[in-house]
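Margin note from the TA: students keep mixing up input and output lines. Inputs are the sequences; the output is the structure of the whole complex. Example:
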Amino acid sequence: MTSLFLIVAVLAAVLLLFLASQVWGRYARRSDTLQTETGQLTEVDLEAFENLTDPEEEQYLRKNLSSAKFRRVQRTRLRAAKMYVAALSHNAVVLVAVGQTARSSADPAIAAAGQEIVQRAIRLRIWCLLSLLRMNAAFVFPAQLSPSGRLANQYMLVTYMAANLPGRVVA
Amino acid sequence: MDLQHFIFRYLFVAPHVLLIPVAIVMFRKALHRQFPVFFSYLCYEFLQFCVFYPILTRLLILPTWIYLDLDMFFKAGSTAFHFGILQELFESPVKHDDSLRKSSTRILRWVTVALVVMASAFIGFQYYRQAHLLPRSYASIEALNIAQCFLLVLVFLWHRFLGHKMSTFAFGIALGLGLTAFLEPFFSAWTDSRLMQRAFIPDFLWMGTYHCSVLIWLYYALASDKNIPRSGEGPSRHGSGGGSLIEMRESAAEMERLVRR
């Protein structure tokens, strides 16, 4: 009887603390929101990223290296590619914030553009997560799985849209 | 009327009456379009109050079994609404993107099933192992309530992961719902544990918590901006700046074509 009560009491306390942290986070973050939105995105060398995830490049390495050496090289390439994806993922969050700021604009055109940026940036963020999962799997089986480089195109598109917001309200 | 009765009546009436201003503010700010399930939930809770008020004030006397069945029915309805609201909150960042919305609904459904199974196993184990005051039908509701707690945590984490700041009212809904969802299993277990002779205390605390939740909803409804529906608004209708959006979309499409080559 009391064991259920104790378990539920502890659970409720933990969840209430979580809720309090959410409230704190929302209002504490408000002060640095502007800084985040106007802050620079992490620089990503998309060409290098595309090179790391290029299937032709991978095919070339597979053909010209021994199996053991290919796995080693491929793992190094994946490690580097994961760093790029992490940077893209971080930038996607910044772009969501940029889109949200634009979305709350009084100008309907800017608001609509902001909405579009939010959608695409959210999509990019999810793709980054899936890509990271795939890369982790490819890290274990480098000979069987290849990373995808389609993220770079999506990233270029969203940053382009954010940079060309009507009225350029956001940096 | 003694103090205990007065507090009971206040805690029973006030939050339910306050649901009306919340609904009115939502309607005036067009938030009911953005959160239709939550709006329906407010109406449902008020209806529930209208049914139970005459029973609890003894204006209408019903046999206990009818009262318990009615209570169970409305509790089940509230729980179903809670799940609907959680889905509404979970989908809110991706609601304009059809494919993402469908995917997120699918993810949420699977997570819900997994959590309900785990919570039912936990509650089932606890209830069948020992004797309890509350009927077993209430135990299943409690299991669903525990599952809801974790779903609400998931909603917050999902927004955090996407870097999507919840709208003011969405945050208010989540906060109010969190308060009730996190404490309901606790008060229910407290009543059931017979730790305290005065069983009205957990009831009062529970009603007070619900009152706080309604006040939170009212505050955030008042604080939120008016919802101006933007979907379907063509850029040509916007006058200044409208052309630039068309241009931006065209160049984005062009760029998409280029990068796909």
